[in-house]
Amino acid sequence: MSTTRNTDLTDAEFAELDELLATTPAPLQPLDASMLDGYLCGVLVQPRLIEIDEWLPNIFDYDGGLLPEAGVDAAWLARIRELVERRHTALNRQLVEDGWFDPVVLDLEGGEEEGAEQPKPENEDAEQAAARATYEGMSLISRTLMPWVAGFQHANLCFPDLNEVDDEAVMAAMARLYRHLPAETDEEKEIVATLDREYPLKDLDDAIEELVVSVADLCDLTEQQRYAVETIRRAEPKLGRNDPCHCGSGRKYKQCHGAN
After folding, report:
1. Minimal CA–CA distance to 171: which of 151, 187, 147, 148?
2. Which backbone phi and psi does 244 adopt, to 5 degrees?
3. What's the pLDDT at 152?
4. Of 58, 83, 114, 249, which shows the fewest CB atoms inside 10 Å?
5. Are 60 and 39 in contact (CB under 8 A)?
């Protein structure tokens, strides 16, 4: 029996998946390989099990757009589904069995250096300029991990169940991840400053380790809810076969509605 579907992706398959997603029909803006990896982890740590048919459509557009119902290459879609499902299965197995996984983190293009100012795009408006300034103010570590964490956040925007968990440990683990996203509000800036002060990151390897541990913590913290089985409760006691039928016919249940 082949075990191909149960194995993690190779480097070549990750590259293939990235290229396949990049050919998603316009105007959709698909996740890249790093964002996809974060998204899958965000799906896996939700306090409820989410089936592939529910979470797969969200990988094709960061803004919530859907693939057109007609005109999509069936072979293209099937190959993407196969690769993504294998990565999802591998991540789940690694988190449950090992409490560890290797995230897909992409090197910044051009060997970007700490504090380096990027060229100003032409026709940049005020909002774009503010976003660029915020990005350039982030550490190189956070700029490197930001796509992965943005994918994780995308899962929480699509499926807000985790955000609604009333647990300080859950909130703390999420804060350790979101420290790598641009801080926009004063509260977010204060949280990042506190984390940088109390839990400084020595280098990228240290930051990746914290990222993985935070996801593993979330997986453990939500496990009981995720695999809880609801008990079916009856409003009334179950009728015995010799009891009067509930329909009021006067006959025994086994001779009325309970008859085979």
Report:
1. 187
2. -60, 140
3. 98
4. 114
5. no
The CB-side HSE value for 186 (13 A sphere, CA atoms) comes to 0
* Residue 195 pLDDT greater than 60, yes or no: yes
- Rounded to an integer, what distance in angstroms lies between the CA atom of residue 27 and that of residue 29? 6
pLDDT of residue 110: 44
Report pLDDT for 142. Answer: 94
* Separation CA 93–CA 115 (nearest Å): 38
CB 42 within 8 A of CB 156: yes
Q: What is the pLDDT of residue 146?
A: 96
Q: What is the pTM of this model?
A: 0.80
Q: Are 173 and 218 in contact (CB under 8 A)?
A: yes
Q: Examine residue 27 and say whether the peptide bond preceding it is cis (omega within 30 degrees of 0).
A: yes
- Distances in Å between the alpha carbon of 178 and those of 156, 192, 215? 12, 8, 12
Range 141-155 burial, b when 16+ CB lie within 10 A, else e: bbbbbbbbbbbbbbb
The predicted structure's pLDDT at residue 5 = 53
* Residue 252, helix vs strand vs coil: strand
- As beta bridge partners, residue 244 has 252
Q: Which two tokens stand for residue 146?
A: 């930001």
Which percentage of the chain shows pLDDT scores above 90? Answer: 68
Instruction: Kindly state the DSSP code that residue 240 receives in the 8-state scheme.
Output: P
Closest CA to 177 of 202, 160, 154, 158: 154
pLDDT tens digits for 11-60?
999 999 999 999 999 999 999 999 999 999 999 999 999 999 999 999 99
Angle 19-20-26 from CA coordinates, rounded to 5°: 100
Find where tokens 């982890």 sit.
Answer: 41
Q: Measure the CA–CA gap between 87 and 218, rounded to whole angstroms.
A: 19
Are the beta carbons of 39 and 155 closer than 8 angstroms? yes
